[in-house]
């Protein structure tokens, strides 16, 4: 497999050191080196058989003494197409020889050390070649493969069909440089190399570097004598750099290697994925073999197509994995954000993390305490592992498939934990989530003993290749399945998020918490804005879709009520950065829409209880439906009373008791509508609680149980008092505002249409709608409005410049927003009333009343 280069190469500098290859080429073609004035500077010793002139006589001649005028013209044109230090241009069917113009050659040119290197070989006609159809068939056959193994085999089969070699292998490099044959097709009667492994020394570092620069390599006859390049060195005593040469000769080391394998010719095509050497198409023939220049060019192109398809498949697999890992990671982070103590449930952590990075066991170390799940080292062994990790990696994720290589004595528990991926989840003191993989015993079949790959031999003080290619098996123990780069990358992303969620007590913990809190406030504000805008949009679509029938109007009223209930609940839980919200204000807010100032009809009693956000949203819909039903059929119809009691039992569950008195006679519904479904099924389904509704003749009764994990007791001293604001309506001022031109600024068409209908319901007759700042300012210049309603966020801009213009003209205006209480207005606008989306005509009416009473 090796293509070891010349002895002058320094392995530590292989990416910069030129490969001179002893100044010789293979004899199936010839070489000319031309200076900038098209003078022959060097030539291969065999040009006489191709151009009719000895190399010594050709040196110093201008190219027009050797090459045809058409050839020189073509060379000049193609030379202009060379871009980059490793560029090579190829030409086919070129009449090169001035003395033999009927002879056609296939050529390649590149720059080397300031000269233009021309390499040529006689053309081999091949009328059966159809490049377009060959490439098309190659790609379609690759696309038809279902597995990677079949993909590799099909690639090898197509390259063999194209080149005619006896054996074609797909050779993949491992992380350590060792190789494995992962795909193969071979002439009948020959042994198979599929599955064999080769040590990294078989293809040295400098050879792998050259495979990146020159992705194609042909050795037509290992027994052929190399042809020297004349002169061997120029006037600066420099050999000609043949790194990019297609005719470059072969080192004696590699020739000996191939002879040991019984190979007569070889060909290799690099497989470059993401710009790196993934592997090779390694082709062997057991007698000399020289595919035509066109065949080799197509083989190189096919290798590039194979690499693109391979890269696409790997990217697709990585993308699928990233999506799955991200979803599992989001669930983990969401759970931790709600309750960091969930890390104590190691079984749950192991199950969730196992979806991200497959593992056999998990250990969590926090504040010096260790909890484990699945197959892990003994608990007493976790502390030494953590100390070692802290000393080695700091804050980074670390992974190994051979734990005993870094932890002394780890081989004692390799059966349970041979591999480790460690995720730091705090800064100081160091806390970790450790993912373990069990030992995976496997047998590796090497092509010869990998521990004795070479010996000193006849080619100078150099290592010669191994003489034996018999399969040599080695059982590998103490290793787990390795953690992939994708798994480590996802773990690193997860680590970054976990460190923010699980901040421990440390020197900078408070500062980190403050910054995290600020970031969270911005995210919550944006979330609230988006949710409210979506609810406003949904409400607007529903209103614009009404057909004026009684059924449509009735549906719209129910639908709007549910949308407003969700909006109010969402605003309450986002007001304190997605924190638990109080139960009592939820009930009072829903009841206020039906009883107004008749607070005596509502009897509430219970401790100060907070509900987690997910439970709060669910209960908001339940309370809304209960209040709506009570207003239609129960105690809130006339002068009845609604009694609601709640308490927390010993298990920490919240128990809510709902009783209605003094209303009309109660009858059970004849069918279960959507509202009834919400009442009876949402708490059991969403929260794991209970809902029991009894339709008693004297009044409806219901009991609800919210499980303890959704409930918190609040400190009564921290509950803010609700201010009481007295408003005196100035009807004349309100009518005056609506009598003139009303300017409505809203970037959503549906919401704008809905708002326009509401403003007309309030009495306005002339409304100008603008979707951005420029349109709004133009409307103000055209005619000064008497009232304006401004959506704060207009996509990439805000309506504050419009507000400034209105304030300068003394025009009253309202803001509309989806940011809820997180809206941050300039100080001189804090007094301006704000309509929280989704708003209705009642909301606008109340805000106009407030605006009309302002000084």
Describe the structure.
The chain is of the alpha+beta class. Helices cover 37% and strands 22% of the residues. The strands form eight sheets. Strands 1-11-3-2-6-5-4 form a seven-stranded antiparallel beta sheet. The protein has a six-stranded antiparallel beta sheet with strand order 9-8-7-13-12-10. The longest helix is centred in the middle third of the chain and has 46 residues, at 293-338. The model is unreliable at 1-21, 459-464, 504-509 and 722-729 (pLDDT under 50).
| Secondary structure tally, helices | 21
Strand ordering within the main sheet: 1-11-3-2-6-5-4
Gyration radius from CA atoms, angstroms: 40 Å
Q: What is the CATH architecture assignment of the domain at 580-718?
A: 2-Layer Sandwich
Secondary-structure map with pairings?
Layout: E1 24-25, E2 30-34, E3 40-44, H1 48-51, H2 55-58, H3 69-79, E4 89-95, E5 104-112, E6 115-122, H4 131-143, H5 148-163, E7 167-173, E8 179-186, E9 197-198, H6 205-213, E10 216-219, E11 227-230, H7 252-261, E12 265-273, E13 276-285, H8 293-338, H9 346-356, E14 361-366, E15 369-374, H10 379-393, E16 398-400, E17 419-424, E18 432-437, E19 442-447, E20 454-456, E21 463-465, E22 471-476, H11 485-501, H12 509-544, H13 550-574, E23 581-582, H14 583-595, E24 602-605, E25 609-611, H15 613-633, E26 641-648, E27 654-661, H16 674-687, E28 690-696, E29 699-706, E30 711-713, H17 731-739, E31 741-745, H18 749-761, E32 766-770, H19 773-782, E33 787-791, H20 800-809, E34 813-817, E35 834-836, H21 841-853
Parallel strand pairs: 24-26, 31-32, 31-33, 33-34, 34-35
Antiparallel strand pairs: 1-11, 2-3, 2-6, 3-11, 4-5, 5-6, 7-8, 7-13, 8-9, 10-12, 12-13, 14-15, 14-18, 16-17, 17-18, 19-22, 20-21, 23-25, 25-30, 26-27, 27-29, 28-29
């Amino acid at each position: 497999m090796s293509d070891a280069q010349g002895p002058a190469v320094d392995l530590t500098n292989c990416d910069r050191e030129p490969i001179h290859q002893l100044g010789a080429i293979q004899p199936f073609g010839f070489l000319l080196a031309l200076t900038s004035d098209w003078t022959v500077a060097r030539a291969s010793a065999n040009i006489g058989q191709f151009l009719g002139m000895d190399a010594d006589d050709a040196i110093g001649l201008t190219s027009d003494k050797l090459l045809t005028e058409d050839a020189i013209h073509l060379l000049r044109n193609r030379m202009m197409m060379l871009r980059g230090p490793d560029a090579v241009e190829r030409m086919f069917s070129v009449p090169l020889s001035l003395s033999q113009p009927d002879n056609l050659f296939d050529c390649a040119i590149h720059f080397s050390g300031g000269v233009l290197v021309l390499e040529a070989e006689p053309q081999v006609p091949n009328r059966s070649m159809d490049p377009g159809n060959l490439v098309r068939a190659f790609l379609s056959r690759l696309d038809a493969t279902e597995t990677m193994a079949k993909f590799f085999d099909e690639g090898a089969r197509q390259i063999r069909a194209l080149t005619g070699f006896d054996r074609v292998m797909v050779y993949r490099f491992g992380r350590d440089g060792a190789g494995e044959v992962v795909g193969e097709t071979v002439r009948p009667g020959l042994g198979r190399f599929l599955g064999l492994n080769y040590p990294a020394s078989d293809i040295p570092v400098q050879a792998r570097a050259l495979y990146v620069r020159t992705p194609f390599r042909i050795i037509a006859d290992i027994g052929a004598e190399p042809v020297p390049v004349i002169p061997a060195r120029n006037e600066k005593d420099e050999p000609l750099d043949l790194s990019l040469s297609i005719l470059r000769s072969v080192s004696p080391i590699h020739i000996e290697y191939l002879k040991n394998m019984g190979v007569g010719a070889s060909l290799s095509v690099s497989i470059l994925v993401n710009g790196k050497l993934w592997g090779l198409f390694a082709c062997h023939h057991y007698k000399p073999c020289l595919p035509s220049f066109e065949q080799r060019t197509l083989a190189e192109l096919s290798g590039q197509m194979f690499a693109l398809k391979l890269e696409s498949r790997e990217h697709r697999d990585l993308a699928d994995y990233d999506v799955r890992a991200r979803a599992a990671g989001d669930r983990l982070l969401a759970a931790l954000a709600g309750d960091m103590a969930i890390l104590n449930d190691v079984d749950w952590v192991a199950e969730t993390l196992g979806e991200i990075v497959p593992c056999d066991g998990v250990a969590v170390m926090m504040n010096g305490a260790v909890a484990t799940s699945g197959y892990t080292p003994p608990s007493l062994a976790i502390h030494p592992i953590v100390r070692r990790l802290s000393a080695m990696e700091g804050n980074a994720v670390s992974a190994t498939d051979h734990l005993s290589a870094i932890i002394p004595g780890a081989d004692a528990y390799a059966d349970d934990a041979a591999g480790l991926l460690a995720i730091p989840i705090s800064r100081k003191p160091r806390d970790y989530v450790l993912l373990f993989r069990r030992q995976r015993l496997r047998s590796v079949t090497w092509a010869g003993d990998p521990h004795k790959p070479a010996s000193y031999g006849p080619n100078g003080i150099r290592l010669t290749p191994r003489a034996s290619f018999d399969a040599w098996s080695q059982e590998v123990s103490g290793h787990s399945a390795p953690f992939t780069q994708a798994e480590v990358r996802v773990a690193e992303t997860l680590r970054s998020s976990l460190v923010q969620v699980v901040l421990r007590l440390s020197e900078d913990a408070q500062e980190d918490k403050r910054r995290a809190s600020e970031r969270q406030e911005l995210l919550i504000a944006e979330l609230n804005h988006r949710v409210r805008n979506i609810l406003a949009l949904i409400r607007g679509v529903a209103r614009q879709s009404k057909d004026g029938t009684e059924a449509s109007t009735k549906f719209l009223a129910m639908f709007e009520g549910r949308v407003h209930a969700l909006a109010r609940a969402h605003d309450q839980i986002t007001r304190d950065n997605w924190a638990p919200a109080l139960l009592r204000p939820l009930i009072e807010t829903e009841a206020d829409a039906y009883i107004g100032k008749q607070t005596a009809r509502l009897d509430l009693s219970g401790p100060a209880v907070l509900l987690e956000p997910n439970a709060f949203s669910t209960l908001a819909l339940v309370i809304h439906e209960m209040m709506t039903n009570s207003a239609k059929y129960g105690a809130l119809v006339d002068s009845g009373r609604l009694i609601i009691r709640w308490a927390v039992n010993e298990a920490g569950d919240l128990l809510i008791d709902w009783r209605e008195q003094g209303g009309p006679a109660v009858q059970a519904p004849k069918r279960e509508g959507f509202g009834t479904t919400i009442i009876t099924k949402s708490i059991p389904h969403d929260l794991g609680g209970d809902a029991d509704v009894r339709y008693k003749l004297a009044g409806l009764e219901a009991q609800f149980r919210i499980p303890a994990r959704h409930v918190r007791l609040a400190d009564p001293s921290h509950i803010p008092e609700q201010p009481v604001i007295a408003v005196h309506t100035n009807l004349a001022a309100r009518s005056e505002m609506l009598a003139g031109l009303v300017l409505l600024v809203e970037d959503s068409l549906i919401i704008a249409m809905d708002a326009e209908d509401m403003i007309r319901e309030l009495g306005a007759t002339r409304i100008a709608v603008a979707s951005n700042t420029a349109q709004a300012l133009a409307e103000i210049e055209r005619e000064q409005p008497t009232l304006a309603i401004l959506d704060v966020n207009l996509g990439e801009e805000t309506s504050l410049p419009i507000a400034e213009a209105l304030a300068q003209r003394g025009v009253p205006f309202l803001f509309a927003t989806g940011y809820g209480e997180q809206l941050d207005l300039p100080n001189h606008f804090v007094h301006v009333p704000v309509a929280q989306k989704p708003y209705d005509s009642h909301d606008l009416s109340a805000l106009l009343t407030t605006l009309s009473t302002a000084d």
